[in-house]
What we know:
Shape: globular
CATH class: Alpha Beta
CATH superfamily: Metalloproteases ("zincins"), catalytic domain
Strand order of the largest sheet: 1-2-4-3
CATH topology: Collagenase (Catalytic Domain)
Number of domains: 1
Largest sheet: 4 strands, mixed
Strand content: 5-15%
CATH architecture: 3-Layer(aba) Sandwich
Number of helices: 5
Distance between the termini: 40 Å
Radius of gyration: 19 Å
Helix content: 40-55%
Structural class: alpha/beta
Number of strands: 4
Amino acid sequence: MTIEVSNESGVGVDETLIASVARYALNAMHVNPAAELSILAVTTDVMSELHERWMDEPGPTDVMSFPMDELAEESRRPDAPELGPALLGDIVLCPEFAKAQARTAGHPLADELHLLTVHGVLHLLGYDHAEPEQEREMFGLQNKLLADWRAAREQAAAREAQRRSDSAVLGTVGLEDDTPSR
Length: 182
Protein backbone atom coordinates (compact mmCIF):
# COMPACT_ATOMS: atom_id res chain seq x y z
CA MET A 1 0.00 0.00 0.00
CA THR A 2 1.39 3.36 -0.97
CA ILE A 3 0.57 6.29 1.29
CA GLU A 4 2.12 9.64 0.54
CA VAL A 5 1.97 12.33 3.22
CA SER A 6 2.95 15.94 2.48
CA ASN A 7 2.95 18.71 5.04
CA GLU A 8 2.47 22.18 3.58
CA SER A 9 0.73 23.53 6.68
CA GLY A 10 3.65 25.13 8.48
CA VAL A 11 2.67 23.16 11.59
CA GLY A 12 4.90 20.30 12.71
CA VAL A 13 3.15 16.97 12.27
CA ASP A 14 4.46 13.42 12.50
CA GLU A 15 3.98 12.27 8.93
CA THR A 16 5.11 8.73 9.78
CA LEU A 17 2.35 8.28 12.38
CA ILE A 18 -0.27 9.79 10.06
CA ALA A 19 0.71 7.27 7.38
CA SER A 20 0.73 4.51 10.01
CA VAL A 21 -2.81 5.15 11.22
CA ALA A 22 -4.07 5.46 7.63
CA ARG A 23 -2.37 2.18 6.68
CA TYR A 24 -3.80 0.46 9.76
CA ALA A 25 -7.33 1.65 8.94
CA LEU A 26 -7.06 0.62 5.29
CA ASN A 27 -5.71 -2.81 6.21
CA ALA A 28 -8.41 -3.30 8.84
CA MET A 29 -11.03 -2.39 6.24
CA HIS A 30 -9.55 -4.98 3.84
CA VAL A 31 -8.58 -2.49 1.17
CA ASN A 32 -6.41 -3.99 -1.54
CA PRO A 33 -2.73 -3.70 -0.53
CA ALA A 34 -1.88 -2.21 -3.93
CA ALA A 35 -4.11 0.81 -3.25
CA GLU A 36 -2.66 4.32 -3.15
CA LEU A 37 -3.59 7.23 -0.90
CA SER A 38 -2.41 10.82 -0.71
CA ILE A 39 -2.63 12.86 2.51
CA LEU A 40 -1.91 16.57 2.48
CA ALA A 41 -1.69 18.92 5.47
CA VAL A 42 -2.49 22.50 4.47
CA THR A 43 -2.83 26.01 5.88
CA THR A 44 -6.17 27.43 6.97
CA ASP A 45 -6.20 29.67 3.88
CA VAL A 46 -5.83 26.71 1.53
CA MET A 47 -8.42 24.71 3.47
CA SER A 48 -10.84 27.67 3.34
CA GLU A 49 -10.49 27.79 -0.44
CA LEU A 50 -11.10 24.04 -0.76
CA HIS A 51 -14.02 24.12 1.66
CA GLU A 52 -15.70 26.99 -0.17
CA ARG A 53 -15.01 25.56 -3.63
CA TRP A 54 -16.10 21.97 -3.01
CA MET A 55 -18.61 22.25 -0.16
CA ASP A 56 -19.97 25.78 -0.69
CA GLU A 57 -19.27 26.49 2.98
CA PRO A 58 -17.25 29.48 4.20
CA GLY A 59 -14.05 29.20 6.19
CA PRO A 60 -11.73 26.32 6.92
CA THR A 61 -12.59 22.88 8.24
CA ASP A 62 -10.54 20.13 9.86
CA VAL A 63 -10.52 17.43 7.16
CA MET A 64 -11.81 16.89 3.65
CA SER A 65 -11.77 13.71 1.57
CA PHE A 66 -11.66 13.60 -2.20
CA PRO A 67 -12.38 10.14 -3.59
CA MET A 68 -11.17 9.49 -7.11
CA ASP A 69 -13.92 10.17 -9.65
CA GLU A 70 -13.45 6.83 -11.42
CA LEU A 71 -14.36 5.05 -8.20
CA ALA A 72 -17.06 7.45 -7.01
CA GLU A 73 -19.88 5.42 -8.51
CA GLU A 74 -18.85 2.26 -6.68
CA SER A 75 -19.21 1.80 -2.96
CA ARG A 76 -15.86 0.95 -1.42
CA ARG A 77 -17.18 -0.22 1.89
CA PRO A 78 -15.96 -3.64 3.01
CA ASP A 79 -19.40 -5.13 2.33
CA ALA A 80 -19.11 -4.02 -1.33
CA PRO A 81 -17.65 -6.25 -4.06
CA GLU A 82 -13.91 -6.95 -3.91
CA LEU A 83 -11.75 -3.88 -4.31
CA GLY A 84 -8.94 -3.98 -6.82
CA PRO A 85 -5.81 -1.88 -6.74
CA ALA A 86 -6.73 1.74 -7.11
CA LEU A 87 -5.89 5.30 -6.30
CA LEU A 88 -8.33 5.83 -3.43
CA GLY A 89 -8.11 9.60 -3.43
CA ASP A 90 -6.87 12.41 -1.25
CA ILE A 91 -7.31 13.39 2.37
CA VAL A 92 -6.64 17.02 3.21
CA LEU A 93 -5.94 17.90 6.86
CA CYS A 94 -5.76 21.36 8.41
CA PRO A 95 -3.56 21.09 11.53
CA GLU A 96 -4.02 24.74 12.53
CA PHE A 97 -7.81 24.34 12.53
CA ALA A 98 -7.51 20.98 14.33
CA LYS A 99 -5.50 22.57 17.18
CA ALA A 100 -8.59 24.19 18.68
CA GLN A 101 -10.53 20.94 18.44
CA ALA A 102 -7.69 19.10 20.17
CA ARG A 103 -7.67 21.65 23.01
CA THR A 104 -11.44 21.36 23.40
CA ALA A 105 -11.22 17.55 23.43
CA GLY A 106 -8.34 17.68 25.92
CA HIS A 107 -5.83 15.74 23.88
CA PRO A 108 -2.72 16.54 21.83
CA LEU A 109 -2.86 17.77 18.25
CA ALA A 110 -1.29 14.48 17.10
CA ASP A 111 -4.28 12.53 18.49
CA GLU A 112 -6.68 14.85 16.70
CA LEU A 113 -4.81 14.42 13.41
CA HIS A 114 -4.89 10.63 13.80
CA LEU A 115 -8.65 10.78 14.39
CA LEU A 116 -9.13 13.05 11.38
CA THR A 117 -7.00 10.77 9.21
CA VAL A 118 -9.16 7.75 10.07
CA HIS A 119 -12.25 9.89 9.52
CA GLY A 120 -10.96 10.84 6.07
CA VAL A 121 -10.16 7.21 5.22
CA LEU A 122 -13.68 6.14 6.13
CA HIS A 123 -15.14 8.87 3.90
CA LEU A 124 -12.98 7.65 1.01
CA LEU A 125 -14.38 4.16 1.60
CA GLY A 126 -17.96 5.38 1.31
CA TYR A 127 -18.93 6.02 4.93
CA ASP A 128 -20.88 9.15 5.83
CA HIS A 129 -22.46 10.73 8.90
CA ALA A 130 -25.31 12.78 7.43
CA GLU A 131 -27.97 10.68 9.19
CA PRO A 132 -27.95 9.62 12.87
CA GLU A 133 -27.65 5.91 12.04
CA GLN A 134 -24.79 6.57 9.61
CA GLU A 135 -23.08 8.74 12.22
CA ARG A 136 -23.30 6.00 14.88
CA GLU A 137 -21.86 3.44 12.45
CA MET A 138 -19.05 5.66 11.14
CA PHE A 139 -18.00 7.15 14.48
CA GLY A 140 -18.19 3.75 16.19
CA LEU A 141 -15.92 2.27 13.52
CA GLN A 142 -13.62 5.30 13.68
CA ASN A 143 -13.25 4.92 17.46
CA LYS A 144 -12.60 1.18 17.19
CA LEU A 145 -9.96 1.60 14.49
CA LEU A 146 -8.17 4.28 16.54
CA ALA A 147 -8.29 2.22 19.74
CA ASP A 148 -7.02 -0.89 17.94
CA TRP A 149 -4.21 1.07 16.25
CA ARG A 150 -3.13 2.58 19.57
CA ALA A 151 -3.21 -0.85 21.25
CA ALA A 152 -1.12 -2.35 18.42
CA ARG A 153 1.44 0.47 18.76
CA GLU A 154 1.64 -0.04 22.54
CA GLN A 155 2.14 -3.79 22.09
CA ALA A 156 4.88 -3.21 19.51
CA ALA A 157 6.62 -0.72 21.83
CA ALA A 158 6.42 -3.18 24.74
CA ARG A 159 7.88 -5.98 22.58
CA GLU A 160 10.70 -3.70 21.45
CA ALA A 161 11.45 -2.63 25.05
CA GLN A 162 11.52 -6.28 26.12
CA ARG A 163 13.82 -7.18 23.21
CA ARG A 164 16.22 -4.40 24.18
CA SER A 165 16.14 -5.45 27.82
CA ASP A 166 16.78 -9.07 26.89
CA SER A 167 19.63 -8.04 24.58
CA ALA A 168 21.23 -5.93 27.31
CA VAL A 169 21.00 -8.76 29.85
CA LEU A 170 22.33 -11.33 27.39
CA GLY A 171 25.04 -9.02 26.08
CA THR A 172 23.73 -9.20 22.53
CA VAL A 173 23.08 -5.52 21.98
CA GLY A 174 23.45 -4.78 18.27
CA LEU A 175 23.24 -8.43 17.22
CA GLU A 176 20.34 -9.81 15.24
CA ASP A 177 17.74 -11.72 17.29
CA ASP A 178 18.28 -14.89 15.26
CA THR A 179 22.09 -14.93 15.65
CA PRO A 180 23.07 -18.21 17.38
CA SER A 181 25.13 -17.93 20.58
CA ARG A 182 28.49 -19.69 20.76
